[in-house]
Amino acid sequence: xxAVAVVGTxxxxxxxxxxxxxxxxxxxxxxxxxxxxxxxxAERFSIPVAATTLDEVLDRVEAVTIATPPSTHAQLVRxxxxxxxxxLCEKPFACDADQARELLARAEEANVVHLxxxxxxxxxxxALLARVVRSGAIGEARLATFVLHIxxxxxxxAEVPAWWxxxxxxxxxxxxxxxxxxDQIRVTLGEFxxxxxxxxxxxxxxxxxxxxxxxxxxLVGGTVGMMQSVASDRGPMxxxxxxxxxxxxxxxxxxxxxxxxxxxxxxxxxxxxxxVAPPDPPPADLMHTAYDLLHSTGIxxxxxxxxxxxxxxxxxxxNLTELDPRPATFADGVADMAVLDAIRRSARDxxxxxxxx
Amino acid sequence: xxGVVVVGTxxxxxxxxxxxxxxxxxxxxxxxxxxxxxxxxxxxxxxxxxxxxxxxxxxxxxxEAVSIATxxxxxxxIVGxxxxxxxxxLCEKPFARDAPEAxxxxxQAERSGVVHLxxxxxxxxxxxALLARAVRDGCVGQPxxxxxxxxxxxxxxxxxxxxxWWxxxxxxxxxxxxxxxxxxDQVRVTLGEFxxxxxxLLHVADRAVADTGVTADDxxxxxxxxxxxxxxxMQSTAADRGPMVIETRVIGTDGSAxxxxxxxxxxxxxxxxxxxxxxxxxxxxAPPGSPPASxxxxxxxxxxxxGLxxxxxxxxxxxxxxxxKGVEPPPGPQPATFADGVADMAVLDAMRRSATEHRTVAVPAPAI
Lengths: 357, 368
What we know:
The complex is a heterodimer.
Chain A: E1 3-7, H1 11-22, E2 26-31, H2 35-44, E3 49-51, E4 63-66, H3 73-82, E5 86-89, H4 97-110, E6 114-116, H5 124-135, E7 141-149, H6 173-189, E8 192-198, E9 212-219, E10 224-230, E11 238-245, E12 248-253, E13 256-261, E14 264-268, H7 290-293, H8 301-315, H9 330-349, E15 353-354
Parallel strand pairs in A: 1-2, 1-4, 2-3, 4-5, 5-6, 7-10
Antiparallel strand pairs in A: 7-11, 8-9, 8-15, 9-10, 11-12, 12-13, 13-14
Helix pairs in contact in A: 1-8, 3-4, 4-9, 5-6, 6-9
Chain B: E1 2-7, H1 11-22, E2 25-31, H2 35-44, E3 49-51, H3 54-58, E4 63-68, H4 75-84, E5 88-91, H5 99-112, E6 116-118, H6 126-136, E7 143-151, H7 164-167, H8 175-191, E8 194-202, H9 207-210, E9 219-226, E10 231-237, E11 245-252, E12 255-259, E13 266-270, E14 273-276, H10 299-304, H11 310-325, H12 338-357, E15 361-362
Parallel strand pairs in B: 1-2, 1-4, 2-3, 4-5, 5-6, 7-10
Antiparallel strand pairs in B: 7-11, 8-9, 8-15, 9-10, 11-12, 12-13, 13-14
């Protein structure tokens, strides 16, 4: 069993610990800033060691997973990589693309396994959608739409961690939710060429971070589209993932993928290899704030377990290029951050912003 | 009765003729390019005269007004002829070739002192009018984000029959002009003036395979910013074979408001929960009604002849007649004039430039 340290007592415990164990890791240590909370969480999740710095547990492990606020990722990644530990790091990956590039360079130099926590690449619906689009079943992809409206943060008093309400610390809905969508678009349809974006603050409160985004994008391959999400919409929830092509349209509802073309509408059956474990909510008594509720359904546990299995296999020496879905590495972390940077710049300047490859 | 000439044998007959009559106009003649088709249409819609000359039609006795439902590039000449003859004008959207031509037509109309209206009838659509009123009345607090999505399959078949002008982007054809111009007007009425747009024009159906002559778009994606601070999305395609997408929603600081589909039901959801808004009497219009099915021959005719907008168009025609007669107009929303035609065209121009140049394009503030 590979020993791993988990840094982060929130999502780290609710998802990383459970997924890593399901993939056969030995969770040896939990690291958190608050000694009391960390000790309590370690006990609750039966983790032998609780610590307040990563340094003090590095000798015990081969790998580290990081589920802390984005602005703290860089120092933790540097520490882990310098000690030759394999690293799985949450998204949004870094403060910006420049910092992301530095972390990628360090990981490559240390020759460790480096993965990004964009687990939804392994969600069966998303993985199948990507395969259908790449197969040419809808012809050439012309229009892609990603819409998600939920009421989670509509209450002006909705509680989130201090860092999450702060744009300068990498908080906000763009980093939390759009970073997954950016990654999905890159996997499904190709690299971004340019974006035009707005980052509205729908509800008035003291946050500097946005609770919604609108992104009009054009991809290098010519597909255009819209990513739009609001976390403070009191109207009916909207979920829509759809790619319209020259010969037909494919869309996702949960993990169900359907296609409509000149021959009519039909379901696409997912191959067995894309199946994941069913959703498994974390303990309800640990869900307190609106932010906690983001992860309360447990729908990410199955995909995260697949990601952890890939982490395990790569550490054991398997070949990255043979994997489908391919996991995101720090190189994807760089590419995803470059798109997020461009979105933020576009929203600030009111101009279209190109993405440098 | 107020005598009116309708120019255009498609939408002109399917909707203008029927709406104008319902509003108390006497449709004296229909004018078309093709004598045989014009005669056939005049007969189908009981119009006494079928003509191929606008000047001849304008010279008929008792003609006070002209309504124009022809391809956009022909609007300038026909509006000019009508204004020269001192006739009141109702002109279809998209209004003109571009904003400069629209400004010229507006100036000409204002000099003539006639009534000039734009055919953006959806200002009177019960659902759209009710949503606009609710938002302006503060139902959602300060509006922050708007989404106007419509995906339909009507042009998904690459062989869909379309008029020559509609296939040609250079002649003002395409889905942005046809549908997008209505949405632009709706956004302006509901949320304020455009300040900048980022747009892509789509060619979803592979018409190049079936017909190399098609240059017009069959969809669009637009990210817009308004002077009110609202950011939004207008997105539509007429070539999506998937389930229809119809979403009109405004999200504000205090809640969200939306239209159920394309209907007349508007709902608001805020801290007190969701509720359905009552339709005030001034926003009620006559029921929809399709023209005779035998007149809807091509895909394009089926697309424009749905008759869902007959009630709204009748209200527009009532405003046209009230302004001509100088009598009390119907209560409720105000119709668009050529001034709105200029403002709408400026936005449309900015969207086309944005799509061509792959950049965000500023929209000049309109002079209304």
